[in-house]
Amino acid sequence: MAGLGPDVRVFQDPEVLSHAAAALFVETANQAITQRGQYLVALSGGKTPERLYALLAQSPYRELIDWPKLRAFWGDERCVPAEDLNSNYRQARDLFLSHVPVPPENVRRVRTELEPGLAAEDYALALRKNASPPLQWPRFDLVLLGLGEDGHTASLFPHSPLETMKPTLAVMAPGQDRSGWRVTMTPPVFNSAHRVVFLVQGVGKSKIVASILYGEPNPELWPAQRIRPEDGELIWMLDTGAAANT
Ligand code: 6PG
Questions:
Q1: Residue nearest to atom 9 of ligand 1 (CA)
Q2: Residue 7: beta bridge partners?
Q3: What domain range is 78 assigned to?
Q4: Is 154 touching ligand 1 by the criterion CB < 6 Å?
């Protein structure tokens, strides 16, 4: 909302946070399907959304979404085989997408069997095939994002290429426990969404959350600060641990 501060919602613990996120996922689905006849989502990887994904495959949430209207994409992907335990696609597929009636053709993973540069170009083509003109990519109804303790989100890492109008990039993740090549969507795609939700939990994230939300603008160091939807909502969903410094 113009002029107001960020929309920050704090929940007592990770379980309550995950249920709130599931309820928001359902609410966004119903708004999108009513208004536009489909639900375009860009999913996140990492550990934080695992419980959310599991909840979406269960009652009551499962019954509340018109699943054949969902089109699933990934905000970023590790360049590992689709069956690899580190695959963001495999995580979401196994936790919920394979348990609900989403048509397979509506699930568009990054083709990590291609070399990273080609996988990124291939994904840009897939986004273009689902574009919301005049954009060259979908105007997502929901972008789900996590936050790394270094301020990265999706696979936009500190000191990553700052400005690009390309919708996807192949990047090398810095030497964390998840190093290696990634394919990521870029800020222009995220910032064109109707709704962007950061889902962050744990006191270990409290310092970086405060820096991102209330610290000096420093998008080179903290890429999550580059996420500012032009004409959409930005919602931070935190547990009390992650909100400890806000
Ligand atoms: C990934 C995610 C990444 C993640 C953050 C937070 O592919 O790992 O896209 O950006 O959201 O690193 O990860 P956790 O939820 O595991 O803390």
A1: 154
A2: 235
A3: 7-239
A4: yes
Say whether 78 sits in a helix, a strand or coil. strand
pTM (two decimals): 0.96
- Please, is 60 exposed, middle or buried when counting C-beta atoms within 10 Å of its C-beta (0-12, 13-18, 19+)? exposed
CATH number of the domain that 168 lies in? Answer: 3.40.50.1360
pLDDT tens digits along 59-78: 999 999 999 999 999 999 99
Neighbours of 196 (CB within 10 A): 24
The token duo for 87 is 């695959």
pLDDT digits (tens, 9 = 90+) for 30-68: 999 999 999 999 999 999 999 999 999 999 999 999 999
- Indicate the number of domains in the chain: 1
**CA-to-CA dists, residue 11 to 105, 160, 195, 231, angstroms:** 35, 32, 19, 26
- Ligand 1 neighbour 44 (Cβ under 6 A): yes
